[in-house]
Design goal:
The complex is a heterodimer of chains A (187) and B (188). With 187 residues, chain A is mostly helical. Chain A is built from seven helices and no strands. Chain B has 188 residues and is mostly helical. The chains are: A mainly alpha (187), B mainly alpha (188).
Chain lengths: 187, 188
């Protein structure tokens, strides 16, 4: 039991330390470690965990880690996996934050950060476009997306409130539609 | 006391941010406005650093913000706050896995959630544009010249980077490193 927990922690520590971007970036390592080397679970289980993790609140990579850890060793397993995943982040980011704080007034660092900020806008735009393709499928989706954009830019309503109301709106719009479609299929 | 507040704020983010790392961005911006713990300009650095270091972006962002607010221990507390809801939720879902997987209600909620998250992240992008000073609103007001409003160097570079991202689909770290070099060479 204890050895399994240590193994889980170390495996996810390594994944957190070498995969850039989390999420699907860690899938190849997950498959190698858990399906091929250890046969702790099968391909379908891991793909299900990914699908579910995207539908749950929180960071996708962490959700997947907890699913896998929990399946192997219950709640302690889930905790060991999540802690393993975040430990390298905490170490690396703390060092960078500390270093950057000392160099913020250096003109070269300032120019570099200004260049990077232009790049960050392009990266966000890229993320928005791919989310748009996956999530905005009809006029209702378009309306929700634009209203949320405007509300978020021009008001200070909490994103928590916006997210909850849109989930409820989705249910309010979609559930009657779905029932009607289902009713229509009957002979 | 600050640690307790950090923990609670990031716990809420972990509980309500649906859609992965970038989905925490609108929450982090609201947190900056609401608490004044860190300036909006920190958010741009945070994204760049989180994208160019290993690990999930959402976790890196939480650690970076926590570190800047209350040192290394702040980073630890913020990160733990953000992942604890995940642990609780995933454990519950694991227990009722079959029911959750086929849930039509969850799918319906996502019909509203997906476009909402897209809109919220786009809004976060707009405030990053303000921080990057691609448009010089103050200069335009002073001089009244429309040309002074635009920073053509940056706009041109933005178009170039975006084209490169779309065309080559390399890892973000490549574009971030190149942009740092360009920023120094062209004195952005």
């Amino acid at each position: 039991m204890f050895r399994d927990l240590i193994t889980l922690y170390l495996l996810f520590f390594r994944m957190g330390a070498v995969t850039f971007g989390g999420g699907y970036a860690m899938l190849p390592i997950l498959r190698r470690e858990f399906i091929q080397s250890r046969s702790w679970m099968d391909e379908e289980t891991i793909m299900d965990y990914y699908a579910l993790s995207q539908g749950l609140p929180g960071i996708i990579a962490i959700n997947v880690s907890v699913f896998i850890g929990y399946r192997r060793r219950g709640v302690p397993g889930g905790i060991a996996a999540a802690l393993g995943m975040v430990s390298p982040c905490i170490i690396i980011i703390s060092i960078i934050a500390f270093l950057l704080a000392g160099f913020q007034d250096n003109p070269y660092v300032r120019h570099a950060l200004a260049g990077i900020s232009v790049c960050v806008i392009a990266l966000i735009l890229d993320a928005v476009i791919s989310l748009w393709k996956k999530g905005v499928k009809d006029k209702v989706g378009l309306a929700i997306c634009l209203v949320m954009l405007v509300l978020s830019v021009f008001t200070s309503i909490s994103p928590i409130l916006l997210v909850i109301s849109c989930a409820l709106l989705g249910i309010a719009v979609r559930t009657p539609q779905r029932r009607a479609e289902k009713g229509g299929e009957k002979p | 006391m600050i640690y307790l507040q950090l923990f609670w704020e990031f716990f809420k983010i972990g509980l309500f941010a649906v859609g992965g790392g970038m989905a925490t961005l609108p929450f982090l911006q609201e947190l900056a406005e609401k608490t004044g713990w860190y300036p909006q300009s920190l958010i741009t650095d945070m994204i760049a650093i989180s994208e160019s270091t290993p690990g999930p972006i959402g976790i890196n962002m939480a650690t970076y913000v926590g570190c800047n607010v209350a040192g290394i221990f702040g980073g630890v507390v913020a990160t733990l706050g953000e992942i604890i809801p995940s642990v609780i939720i995933v454990v519950i879902v694991s227990k009722y896995l079959e029911k959750f997987r086929g849930s039509k209600l969850v799918n319906d909620a996502f019909y509203g959630l997906r476009p909402a998250v897209t809109g919220l992240i786009a809004a976060a992008g707009i405030s990053v544009i303000q921080e990057a000073s691609i448009f010089h609103w103050d200069l335009y007001q002073q001089t009244g010249e429309l040309l002074a409003f635009f920073d053509f160097k940056k706009i041109l570079y933005f178009a170039l980077v975006f084209f490169a991202i779309k065309k080559f689909k390399k890892h973000p770290i490549v574009y971030i490193a190149a942009s740092a070099a360009v920023g120094i060479l062209l004195a952005f």
